[in-house]
Amino acid sequence: MAREGIDRQDAISRLRASDRARADYLQRYHGINWLGSMLYDLVINTEHLPVPTAVAIVVRACQTLNERGNNVTPLAGMENKPGGQS
After folding, report:
1. With the CA atoms of 4, 5, 7 and 9 taken in that order, what torsion angle do they form, in degrees rounded to the nearest 10?
2. Residue 83: burial class (beta carbons within 10 Å; 0-12, 13-18, 19+)
């Protein structure tokens, strides 16, 4: 909020507007509800779990999938996205 120079209420309004826009986009172009639990393989609430523990869970999940013959990495598909590896 400080970086954007906005108060809490404005930040909440912007987040809700962004969420609505993303939901509309996904529904319109892909026919999916982004809140649908079947879209996600793993969901971790880091409000109640330390980030290093969450990272360990993701890495272990990838290792388990790889042991079962899947070829996955924690950052698969992120190469061309902001924050992803190049």
Report:
1. -40
2. exposed
The per-residue pLDDT for range 4-28, each reduced to its tens digit, is 889 999 999 999 999 999 999 999 9
Q: 84 Cβ partners below 8 Å, 6+ apart?
A: 75, 78
What element of type H or E holds 21? helix 8-30
Q: Is residue 84 part of a domain?
A: no
Domain membership of residue 85 (yes or no) is no
- Which residue, among 71, 76, 37, 74, has the nearest Cα to 55 in the 3D structure? 74
Q: Render pLDDT for 23-68 as a digit per residue (tens, 0 to 9).
A: 999 999 999 998 888 888 889 999 999 999 999 999 999 899 888 8
Q: Which domain holds residue 22?
A: 1-36
